[in-house]
Design a protein that fits this description.
About 55% of the residues lie in helices and about 10% in strands. It is built from 10 helices and 5 strands. It is globular and about 45 Å long. The structure holds 2'-deoxycytidine-5'-monophosphate.
Amino acid sequence: MIFTVAIDGPAAAGKGTISRAVADRFGFAHLDTGALYRAVGVKGGDPVVAAQTLTPEDLAREDLRTLEAGQAASRAAVIPQVRAALLEFQRRFARREGGAVLDGRDIGTVICPEAEVKLYVTASPEIRAHRRWLELGGDEAEVLAQVKDRDARDMGRADAPLRPAEGAVEIDTSTMTIDEAVARAIALVEARL
Ligand code: DC
């Protein structure tokens, strides 16, 4: 069975948790596409070459989840040749046998517009920054500034900007518990299966 769940949305909206839960529930494979851009961002050197030569070891680095890696990823992600280098791998993953969940910024708009389920998971910048701060610590005002900075870059870039895909169902997790958000996503997938 070919079945793709495309989950897009801004940083720290809950995409990762929802994606993993949906993948677990239905036995689908999961790809965190942000990790590809993070690995490119932290690899250093020419980001286009980094994207073209990405290895499994690059994706297993321990420092991919830091705020700095997120910023580096967002900066590398505006470069069209970086996005082009990562496109085929993501497309093949999306249409693999057995079902796939991909989360990122352009899954429903560019990578897999034919996805069977498209979700746009979002929350207010303040709530997202608070969640990131609980996870990573540091100065909360600085975390909020970084979240806003990344939103502006990810939504404002010319190539594959973050926006809800046509036909995407929006899940605003600002006032939801994680269990409620997961249950909503699972119900939407179940309805389409
Ligand atoms: O989801 P994340 O925070 O791990 O993503 C890190 C950055 O990578 C994000 O700010 C923009 C970029 N990205 C992208 O441009 N397209 C994707 N599909 C996933 C991430």
